[in-house]
Amino acid sequence: MTSTYDTLLSRLQSAFDTLEAGADPVLRTSDRSDYQANGVMALAKRLGRSPRDVAEDIVGRCDLEGVATLEVAGPGFLNLTLTPEFLAHQLTQLRSDPRLGIEAVAMVKTVVVDYSAPNAAKEMHVGNLRSTVIGDALARMYRFAGHHVIARNHVGDWGTPFAMLIEHLVDRGEGDTAFTIGDLDGFYKEARTKFDAEESFKERARARVVALQAGDPETLRLWRIVVDQSIAYLDLVYQDLGITLTIDDVVGESFYDDMLSDVVTDLQVAGLIVESGGALCVFPPGFTNRDGDALPLIVRKSDEGFGYAATDLAAVRDRVDNLHADEMLYVVGVPQAQHFEMVFAVARMAGWLPERVRCEHVTFGNVLGPDRKMFKSRSGDTIKLATLLDEAVERADAALIERNTDLDEMARTQLAVQIARAAIKYADLSTDRHHDYIFDLDRMIAFEGDTGPYLQYAHARLRSIFRRLGAPWDAPSIAFSLDTAQERQLALGFLAFPEAFEASLASLQPHRLCVYLFDLAQRLTAFYDACPVLTSEGALRDQRLALCDLAARTLWIGLSVLGIDAPEQM
């Protein structure tokens, strides 16, 4: 659906671009919205004119249907007021659009999203949270936009750590007391302790590495036991968190093992390999250490083993050549920034990553505890994701009991899980992903403030209005009058939804959509306070019910594309 609102934006954009090609202003929807003063300021500076003069020039070039007033304010703001008729027309269009103005893309792209990527044979912990939650939200948003998304969970499932685990499995045996999901962390810690303390065990583990890489059948069988238990555990955690990753999305380091020799050979043929200290390296231009010396990307180590660089280069080739990716997103913490920059640079040097393919490292900050240090348990151990979710569910259930909901125990437990997920995910997603954030369950579970449960409650409250009608609402044709400022502000909020979604997706910043949803919820509160719904009568009642229906649909779509449930009742 191409709306009149989109036409308004394009005309205002054209007036701006007429003055200088390449300007990129953004219209923020509000009752009297400024047409990005920074855009006007920047354009004025390039033209050597005053910002107000440029703004007035833009106004003179505009013929905007649906705009009651367009005027210059302050140092160069463009303030506009939309006509009631224009808003009414926009609302009528939105009501008939199941996507509420968000158009599906005209050109479908294949987008590979690499996220979560925990180490197998170790329980997922808080350090895996942000990659998992942010990556899943981006995957959902790309799918909703209409793209073909391929999720990749690049788990660590190969090399010395697994040889160590295999040897420990041999020592313990494969009976009922052997490696299970329930003692995943304990099993790993036992193996690690033996590896560090017992030279004979360490030698056996190293020999097992050779056997594993050589494809020894018995070693591979034991490796499969360890990996299968690990992947089954990961699947349970993803289900508990409401993450869309499945077992089929797991493509670990082992998948690329057979490709690594070809990576080295092809880089050698391309003349990119340099031997340095016995290792085979590529030196991409522009990467230096503090002393100004060129930094190598080590493709094969001096012991002839392969590291992360070779595996990541193989993954790039596979995703471009076999998955036919148009975009590749790597949702990985900022400490890996230089590694991925160098991998992408080498892949482009080798011709494996064509310019047509967008390849981006989606970085994020850390999860901190209340003391603003890395979030850990009181004993100093890394906190498990399952433990966090269990505690969040307990707190959500306690909050529901305190609120005296009329739900039965089963329904209340299911709702507590939905609230816990929302609390954890929204706290993460509502923070600019470049920044750290503090993990504080007391704040995250709250039903007030900028939280996931608050937005869920806003949706449930809207749905309760329709339940109290006592009969299905037939959603008649509505003549929107929007007589109050609160109704008008709510209507303007609906018009901003497509822009908020598109800006969030284009920037790979889910927090922008969160900001929009919280703003919409606040507009709803103002609407409730000023505009009775069920006690209104006739056409006014239907108009306000229609606004409530649009609000509920907007919240439902907005939350769902972030991976957050929108309960019907709370």
Q: Nutshell version of this structure?
A:
Helix content is 52%, strand content 9%.
Plain-language structure description:
The structure is a single chain. The chain is of the alpha/beta class and 570 residues long. The protein has 20 helices and 12 strands. The protein has 4 domains: 4-82, Gyrase A, domain 2; 110-154 and 258-362, Rossmann fold (3-Layer(aba) Sandwich); 160-249, no CATH class; 385-560, Isoleucyl-tRNA Synthetase, Domain 1 (Orthogonal Bundle), CATH 1.10.730. A 4-stranded parallel β-sheet has the order 5-4-9-10, sandwiched between helices. Strand 4 (110-114), helix 5 and strand 5 form a beta-alpha-beta unit. The radius of gyration is 28 Å and the shape is globular. It starts with a helix and ends in a 10-residue tail after the last helix. 40% of the residues are buried. The model is unreliable at 20-37 (pLDDT under 50).
Features:
Gyrase A, domain 2; 4-stranded parallel β-sheet; alpha/beta; 570 residues; single chain; 4 domains; Rossmann fold
What is the average per-residue confidence, as pLDDT, rounded to a whole number? 88
Classified by CATH, the class of the largest domain is: Mainly Alpha
- Please tally the β strands and state the result: 12
Shape: globular
Oligomer: single chain
Distance between the termini: 33 Å
Structural class: alpha/beta
CATH superfamily membership of the largest domain, which one?
Isoleucyl-tRNA Synthetase, Domain 1
**How many structural domains?**
4
* Main sheet attributes: strand count, strand direction, barrel closure: 4 strands, parallel
